[in-house]
Design a protein that fits this description.
Layout: E1 3-9, H1 19-30, E2 33-40, E3 52-56, H2 65-78, H3 80-92, E4 100-105, H4 110-119, E5 124-128, H5 140-143, H6 147-171, E6 174-177, H7 180-186, E7 193-195, E8 215-220, H8 232-243, E9 251-256, H9 262-271, E10 278-281, H10 289-294, E11 298-302, H11 316-324, E12 328-331, H12 337-345, E13 348-350, H13 354-371, H14 386-404
Parallel strand pairs: 1-2, 1-4, 2-3, 4-5, 5-6, 6-7, 8-9, 8-11, 9-10, 11-12, 12-13
Helix pairs in contact: 1-14, 3-4, 4-6, 8-13
Length: about 400
């Protein structure tokens, strides 16, 4: 008989696109679960037909700047968005009929999750893809705050929603996160915390030996600003190889990024003399990523480049590159989980050295010249598949239900 799972999560918009929960719901459906999902402002076209999705819109699609500003202020000061989300769930979902609730988010909608789980006395599993502790003093929300009043309001908001997150963690029957560092941090709030990596969909990321006419170094994802993620080491390494005449004009630096960062990347490429090799694109749909990675010679992963470090970041593109069996270049190196994983899996290079970067690129370039494509297979590739991830969630969910004494429906 089917077990019933209610998934409460945040927005599925580019570049995030909800790959973790979207794939999980699809795979759990195949494993005998009935899944329904509530998420904010979702593009329903990315979901399989077998998953019931309830889309919550806090900002009306046609809202103007003033209306959005008012809604944003109400949210940050009065938690208005959380209250609206909670009411939306109660009005559109038969919460009582579900065996267990799974939340997956950063901070929103933690308040709603706690209120709903406790009101309906449902066992809760909390999945945190990001945590506030990972950012140190670089908080992407505070970075955009202007002036003392704005920064004070943002800090107050972050403290408030983090407190609700911690209530959820304490109430939860189990907690899940995405890196060893995250797990150790969250065990302070709930000892029953588990590691389930982000991953790749093995039904979608099928390695293809696609021969290309150019050697494509590809980055797909947010940069935010060059203080946070900076490809300068890569640009300098490519410049070095060109000066040594070891590579030609058949190299392409392909960036699929947000609009506001394109001018800065162009300036950086111009400073290093490789502007003609740079190709700038906007965000793409998740469905296009397998094709892009299969045509990539090297997948670039940008780590924190400032003195204020990030922690435990293992981006989805790392695992998708592993799935596509495309070499990974992580810049700059940090003594962290990403460096260890890349080294253990022998799937690429993590470094902060221009000469090492150039050596790695030249090795892959020469392989590409001979074969028309590149190839690196991780030592334990299937460990990172979404299908394996779903098995881990399935076991955890069933264990929680069993301990609650909830029978099959």
């Amino acid at each position: 008989m089917w077990q019933r799972l209610l998934i409460l999560t945040d927005a599925f918009l580019p570049p995030m696109q909800g790959t973790r929960m979207r794939n999980l719901a699809h795979n759990l459906q195949k494993a005998g679960w009935h899944c329904e999902m509530v998420c904010e402002a979702t593009d329903l076209s990315v979901f399989p037909d077998d998953v019931v999705v309830h889309s919550f819109y806090y900002y009306p699609p046609q809202a103007g700047k003033l209306q959005r500003a008012i809604l944003l202020a109400n949210d940050k000061i009065f938690n208005h968005k959380e209250r609206e989300y909670e009411q939306f769930v109660k009005q559109n979902v038969d919460v009582e009929s579900f065996d267990v609730i799974l939340s997956s988010s950063y901070l929103f909608p933690m308040r709603s999750v706690y209120k709903i789980a406790t009101e309906f006395r449902k066992p809760l599993i909390v999945d945190l893809r990001d945590i506030v502790e990972q950012w140190d003093s670089i908080d992407f929300m505070q970075h955009h705050a202007k002036g003392i009043i704005s920064k004070t309001l943002v800090k107050r908001y972050l403290n408030g929603v983090t407190a609700w997150r911690n209530k959820c963690l304490a109430y939860a029957k189990a907690v899940v996160s995405v890196s060893p560092w995250h797990v150790e941090q969250l065990k302070r709030y709930n000892a029953n915390t588990h590691l389930i990596y982000n991953g790749f969909d093995s039904e979608t990321f099928i390695p293809e030996r696609v021969r290309t006419t150019t050697f494509n170094i590809t980055y797909a994802g947010s940069i935010y600003n060059l203080l946070l993620r900076n490809p300068q080491i890569l640009f300098e390494a490519v410049t070095l190889l060109r000066h040594q005449e070891l590579i030609g004009n058949d190299v392409r630096l392909q960036f699929y990024v947000e609009e506001h960062i394109k001018a800065q990347l162009t300036d950086l490429a111009r400073q290093t003399g490789i502007e003609q090799l740079l190709e700038l694109h906007g965000f793409v749909k998740n469905n296009d990523i397998p094709r892009i990675l299969s045509q990539s010679s090297v997948v670039l992963i940008l780590n924190n480049s400032s003195s204020n470090r990030l922690h435990g970041i293992l981006p989805t593109k790392l695992f998708e590159a592993i799935g596509a069996e495309t070499p990974v270049l992580c810049l700059p190196v940090r003594d962290d989980d990403m460096q260890l994983l890349i080294a253990e899996q022998h799937c690429g290079l993590a470094t902060d050295n221009v000469e090492q970067t150039a050596e790695f690129l030249l090795e892959q370039y020469r392989y590409w010249q001979e074969n028309g494509y590149t190839h690196l297979c991780a030592a334990d590739k299937q460990m990172f598949s979404r299908q394996n991830q779903a098995k881990q969630f399935d076991e955890l969910l069933r264990e929680v239900i069993r301990k609650q004494g909830i029978g099959n429906r």
